[in-house]
Write a structure and sequence with these properties.
- It is a single chain.
- By secondary structure, this protein is α/β, with parallel strands linked by helices.
- A four-stranded parallel β-sheet has the order 2-1-3-4, covered by helices on one side.
- 29% of the residues are buried.
- The mean pLDDT is 95.
């Protein structure tokens, strides 16, 4: 099984990698902030499962919430759609997705994008 992890350099992503390797999963595609869009597309095309952990909760600019949380999720979904396969996704959202603030709206938008993908 080929597993794609977004946010692979973050706390959750780094620890998830360790655990997955302990369980014998050696084929991990790791996406970080430094990964290119083409790298994401290539990894999504080959993925059998996705852990979508990438996101911003304290960006320098408020607009980065929407770009990083909702925008990156849309890019991931577009890349998965292009593969023509239904790939399961585990997503880390936030309890703040119900709040009317920039972070909450961005996480809610990401959730909706993933709901649309699931349909």
């Amino acid at each position: 099984m080929r597993i794609l992890i977004t946010g692979a350099a973050g706390f959750l992503g780094a620890n998830l990698q360790v655990r997955l390797r302990e369980l014998g999963h050696d084929t991990l595609d790791l996406i970080t902030r430094d990964s290119t869009l083409q790298r994401l597309r290539d990894a999504a095309a080959a993925a059998d499962f996705v852990f979508h952990l990438a996101g911003a909760n304290r960006p320098p600019e408020e607009a980065d919430f929407a770009r990083t949380n909702a925008g990156f999720t849309a890019s991931l979904v577009k890349a998965l759609d292009a593969s023509g396969r239904a790939v399961p996704i585990v997503f880390t959202s936030s309890t703040q997705a119900v709040l009317d603030n920039a972070y909450g709206r961005s996480k809610l938008a990401a959730e909706q994008c993933l709901r649309d993908y699931a349909q």
